Amino acid sequence: MKTAVEELSPTRVKLTVEVPFEELETSMQAAYKKVAQQVRVPGFRPGKVPARIIEQRFGRAVVLEETLNDALPKLYGQAVDESDVFPVSQPEIEVTKIDDGKEVEFTAEVDVRPAFDIPDYEGLEVTVPSAEVSDEDIDTQIDALRQRFATLTGVERPAGNGDFVVMDLAATIDGKNIEEQQASDVSYEVGAGSVLQGLDDALVGMAAGDEKTFSTTLVGGENAGEEADVTIKVKSVKEKVLPELDDEFAGLASEFDTLEELRQSIREQAHRNKLVDQVVQAREAALNALLDQIDIPLPESALKAELDARKHNLEHQVAESGLSREAFFRLYQTTEEERFAEFEENARKAIKTGFLLDKIVKREELGVSEQELTNFVVRRAMQLGVAPNTLAQHLADNDQLTLAMVEIVRDKAKTVIGDAVKVVDEAGNEVDLKAIYAELNEGQEGAEGAPGADDEAAAASAE
Fold it and tell me: How does pLDDT run across 60-83, given as a tens digit for each residue?
């Protein structure tokens, strides 16, 4: 087989492939068998019709067509491997010549990863946040813990932001009740940002027993987008009471006996989290620094596929929310146009990033071991809240194991460039990633299934 490559553009090539007829022999025999199973000839059982009878009765063209249907995908794959091109779309294949008994020629036009050089990442300098844990960091986490153990106490005063109210809601349009917009005993935190515009403003200053009507635009249901009058009746007002910050709270919220022990544990975990964050951010910063140095033309088919996938996911989110499109985007404080522009920017970066990491994977000859694949499945299963075996079976059944391995080797490529650059923190202090790996792994050796530094960084990246 002989293959010629013609560059149609930086992101598209045309392969012209010449195949000697003897290389089609296996596919030819398979074609005869398949046709023999499909045709009916008096005097012959199905599948037992001789080749010469098939050609006499139905013509050799039928067999040649079946032969090429079987052979071309394999021949195309072989031509791609031999030509060192990296397809990113389905090929457009055309048979241009059939010289029966001698050779077949076909062409394949396909979008490909463009050629580019990997910038030198040795010596690049990137900056990451400091791993120092401040008292403010500890206080923030303690406050979050107190919020989890807060209680609600009824108060005899008007509601303000941060208070909780129990209320009844009813909506009418032109004086007619909208059944699906009626609700009783709804608990709501004032100021939380309801998709029902005007609700927070209406609730501020209302006390138990008060009733108020305000106008708004409905955001869900059959009447989404219509103006309605919403009547709210407050039944109770409660304020959030945080537990006292003392040893008793430490015993309630943790396994520690004293507040000081709890603070020390939080400090140690916060420090560990910041070390993981330094590793993750060093890798991301190194990657971004490389991306800034290269200008890669992107195949339109790859960009379209990426954008279509993101838009499809958005449509699913809007449908699942039960909100009108306007209300959905208002909830996330954006517009459809802004979201689409964000999609395009992120899609371009994702494709460019994939191209760069794939080249590093090839240059560094990175692979995936069985244990690495197992670790990946376990981590992802924990994130999704499913059993690892269930996820592994799902990936296998949906031909997604290859995608999982691509993700693993791309993460390894990030590690390669992250470890190669010079890392400093915001104060200018040099950060030794290998020392961080050792510290994160300290005390975990021999612990079956315990995550190491790379595992923790990979998990943090995935989050």
Answer: 777 788 888 888 999 999 999 988
